[in-house]
Amino acid sequence: MSIAVKDPRAARRLEALRRLLAHINERIMPEIGFVLWDGSTVPANLPPHALAFVIADEGAVAAMLRRPNINTLLNLWVTSRLDLRNGTFFDLEARRPKARTRTMMKYFDKRLAIATAAKFLFFPRGGPWPLEAVGKASADGTESANKGGEREQRRK
Question: Is 91 within a domain?
Fold first, then answer.
C-alpha cells in the first residue's frame, strides 16, 4: 500500500531512497525492513510482524543527512518521525550485522548513497524539534534564576 506522490521531485526522492534502502536491506541488514511515509515498505513483501524502521516524512531523512548525531536521532524519535515497529532497540541490536564495518562497506554502493543524499540535501528538515529547548534556559546568575533562589523567595 502506498500513497501516490504528486510532486515529481518528491517522487524521485522517494524512489531514490527506496532503492538505497533496498540495497541496504539486501546487502547489510536483511532481517530489518523499512516503512516509508507513503506507506510503502522495503522490501515490498515485508511481513506485517517484521522488525522495521518507520520513516514518517522526508524531512527526517534530510535532518539525519545534515546532522547525523544522537541529538537529531532523539528529536526525530521523540516526535515519532523515526520509529521502530514490532520491536525495541534491543531487538535491533540483536539483529545487527556481525561482520566488521570494513567488510560491509566493500558491498555498500557508495555512489547510490551519495546520489540519494544529494536529492535530500536541500530539503527542509521539518519539525518539531522539542529537545532543542531542553537545557537552554537562561541562567543569568541571579538568585531568582537559580532553583535555590526560588525556594528562598517562597519561604519569605
Answer: yes
- pTM for the model stands at 0.79
Q: How far is CA 88 from CA 32, 47, 52, 91, in A?
A: 12, 17, 10, 5
Q: How far apart are CA 33 and CA 45, in angstroms?
A: 10
pLDDT, tens digit, 9 for 90 and up, residues 36-86:
999 999 999 999 999 999 999 999 999 999 999 999 999 999 999 999 999
Q: Answer yes or no: is 150 within a domain.
A: no
Render 112-126 in DSSP notation, one character per residue.
Answer: HHHHHHHHHTTS---
SS3 content of the chain, % helix, strand, coil (to 5): 50, 10, 40
DSSP state of 86: S
Q: Look at residue 102 and give its three-state secondary structure.
A: helix
User: What is the number of domains present in the chain?
Assistant: 1
